[in-house]
Amino acid sequence: MPEKIQVLLIDDDEDDFVITRDIISDIPGRKYTLSWASSFKEAEELIKQQLHDVYLIDFHLGAHDGLELLTRAVAAGTKAPFILLTGQSDIETDEKAMRAGALDYLVKGTFNPFDLDRSIRYSIEHAKSLAEIQKLNAELELRVEVRTQELAEAIEKLEKTNESLYEAQQEIYKALQKEKELHELKSRFVTIASHEFRTPLSTVLSSASLIGKYKTTEDDEKRQKHVNRIKSSVSNLTTILDDFLSLSRIEEGMIHNVPSTFNIKNQSTEIVDEMQGFLKQGQKITYQHLSSHETANVDRQLFKNILLNLLSNGSKYSGADKEILLTTKVEKTAITIQVQDRGIGIPEADKAHLFTPFFRAQNAVNIQGTGMGLNIVKRYVELMQGTLTYTSELGQGTTFTITLPTN
Q: In the prediction, which pLDDT does 365 show?
């Protein structure tokens, strides 16, 4: 028999406790145990004991407010999720709650057993996802410590032997540079992963909570709107995970160049058709094959991944109703791929870092993405012993040209 979920209600109004207790008791098939803290001080002591799986916290707590208690608890390292109970529904309250660390908020007098049950379950799952990210951060920190220890041992040996001083200094410099790069990579990874996962997860949580409020046929349009938001967020999460997995497999040497003979024109047409469902409103991809030869011998999967990444970027960084141009050409010893968009372009100051993992250009920080796509494309091209060049003008668009040798 599964253990009961321990819920702590923090509210200075006993009537609200009775109401909440009755709502929880009406949740079908769910086993919850509800405890009550009637003051700020009592709640603070109970939270320190970490005896509960989730906290329902009232916005108003006498001379204090729930956000103050929530902020203190999160700063002290409390892992269990908080759900804010408020007397009003507005965007300002929602934003304050999320900034303080709440994973959801419910408006008193409007939620039913189904709403409360769903909010508790989604908040617990969301908290688990954030805990996984923190665990990954800790593991990366440990790797840095291990590498630092290895570096310290290397320095000690060099001091004892004192041989080849110049070479030793160069090795130390390289090791320090690698250490610095690893630390920077870890910091960028944690920052991007936390943000990119939290944003779609919060959208899913918010939309899932709101869907339950639309119960009539007249609400079908609103309900479908939130269903589409959930689908879009899940698609974003899948893309992020695919990028992380691709980068990891490249780093571990698990991706190989395995050429095969296939029709470049037919494959490119299929990829363009596959991209249709991901384009913004009014966008279109215009494809042209510029040679009479259509077959070539290259790695089919890597070819597809390169095109999908470049076409996806072309759509992502272009506005609605913009055209993306794709051309392919098969010659005797090589094939050429060119993807041209009419999007935001790349600032001059950012071009030197364009293929750095996790790098985002200054004019792209508000656009969904991890900064891994172009780095992955570059690694794929190098794996296929090809070349990648580009031209870009700010506000006018970007053109990527790839040449791949054929066998």
A: 65
- Contact of 35 with 82, CB cutoff 8 Å: no
Q: CB count, 10 Å around CB of 159?
A: 9
Rounded average pLDDT per 10-residue block, the chain, 407 residues: 78 86 84 87 88 86 77 84 78 70 80 85 81 77 83 77 71 73 58 55 65 71 73 64 67 82 96 87 94 94 91 90 96 95 90 79 70 86 94 93 92
> Domains of the chain: which residue ranges?
5-111, 119-251, 260-405
Q: Is the pTM of this model over 0.70?
A: no
**What's the pLDDT at 109?**
80
- Compute the distance between CA of residue 325 and CA of residue 77 in angstroms, rounded to an integer: 51
Q: Helix, strand, coil proportions of the chain in percent (round to 5)? A: 55, 20, 25
Placement of tokens 């992020």 in the chain: 240
Q: What is the pLDDT of residue 191?
A: 53
pLDDT given for residue 288 in this prediction? 97
Nearest residue to 210 via CA among 96, 111, 84: 111
Q: How far apart are CA 43 and CA 15, in angstroms?
A: 17
CA distance 92 to 139: 36
Q: Give the separation between CA 214 and CA 228, rounded to whole angstroms.
A: 15
pLDDT for position 1: 41
3-state SS class at 345: coil
Kindly report the CA angle at 276 between 311 and 307, in degrees rounded to 5?
Answer: 25
Q: Is the CATH number of domain 260-405 2.40.50.140?
A: no
Residue 231 to residue 88: CA distance in whole angstroms: 29
Domain 5-111 shares a fold with domain 260-405:
no
> Are 46 and 8 in contact, with CB atoms under 8 Å apart?
yes
Q: Does domain 5-111 have CATH number 3.40.50.2300?
A: yes
Burial of 175 (0-12, 13-18, 19+ CB in 10 A): middle
Please state the length of the chain: 407
Distances in Å between the Cα of 322 and the Cα atoms of 197, 248, 315, 366, 395 are 29, 33, 8, 19, 13
